[in-house]
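The instructor's notes for this session suggest beginning with a concrete chain rather than abstract definitions. Hand out the sequence below and ask the class to guess, before any prediction is shown, which regions might be ordered.
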Amino acid sequence: MKKIILASFAFFAIAISANAQNALEKSLVPVSKEQKALDKAAKEEQLNQSLIQSGCSAEQVAQVKEVIKEMDQKSRDLKSAKLAEEENAAKKKELSTERKTKIVALIGADKYKVWMDTRKKLAAEAAN
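After discussion, reveal the predicted structure:
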């Protein structure tokens, strides 16, 4: 009986580790430049669509995009600064708060909430 239990445990351990290795190999497949460009364009379209659906004007859309671009640059600068883990996390949280504050100042709290809900809905649709 002990041999059967031990053998079945070994079988399941091997099966699980083999499956985990296959999943890892699939995630390491390099993405082509064309695919990256398509993903970037889809992300940009999703941003535009979510802002328009939330009731933002064309001017507000442009301003929000500028804030997002500015915050992305600050995030990349932070990543290249190679700070301690706690300090890096605190700076990221600070940048996130600053980004939200600037966008809320541009479009208002009501539109911001609608925009965030719309973004989540569109992201879920894109994932499926």
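Then share the key points. Residues 1-30 form one domain. Residues 12 and 18 are 10 Å apart (CA to CA).
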